Amino acid sequence: MNIFRFAGDMTHLISVLVLLLKIYATKSCSGISLKTQELYALVFVTRYLDLFTDFISIYNTVMKLVFIGSSLAIVWCMRWHRLVKRSYDRELDTFRHYFIVAACFVLAILVHEKFTFQEIFWAFSIYLEAVAILPQLVLLQRSGNVDNLTGQYVFFLGYIDFSLFSPFSEGITVISVQNEVSFWLLL
Asked: Alpha-carbon dihedral of residues 163, 181, 121, 35, nearest 10 degrees?
């Protein structure tokens, strides 16, 4: 197993656990962008389409299921949990994320390794992941108030997952270079 892939998986898992801890402990999703959470759910659902066709390892399968399940659980809590959904601030979370989804899909159709269904959706998920944090950053900038757990969540999700581990875990490929460039352009 690639140590950088493992480290990237663990930092993403930590970010999800921090977010779930915040939601569970405070019964609030204040300061969290539902649009970012929906984008991450879309990232994992489209990236892990191979879950139904290719078996790599038990670890790989479990992590894919955990990432899909936790992303969908967070979206569910923010949309439908009776206590948590009351704390969601729609007026601050106004980023037009549909434009990002459309742009990433067009880019995936134009820039991919093979023209197959799974490959296009995999490329789409890579491009979308590079910009999925934008609604969260805009929400934090608009609110002007970042609590400790939200700050830790953004740190683990944005910085460590994208900039440190992505190029090493995937090798130096067109996609990893694009991921790295996308991250640094966001800064």
From this structure: 70
pLDDT tens per residue across span 59-84: 989 999 999 999 999 999 999 999 99
Residue 176, pLDDT > 60, answer: no
Burial pattern 34-47, b for ≥16 Cβ within 10 A else e, equals bbbbbbbbbbbbbb
Angle at 113 between CA 108 and CA 117, to 5 degrees: 60
- Report pLDDT digits (tens) over 134-145: 898 888 888 777
What is the torsion angle, in degrees rounded to the nearest 10, for the CA atoms of residue 137, residue 139, residue 142 and residue 145? -90
- Name every residue whose Cβ is closer than 8 Å to that of residue 22 and which is 6 or more positions away in sequence: 28, 29, 32, 147, 149, 150, 153
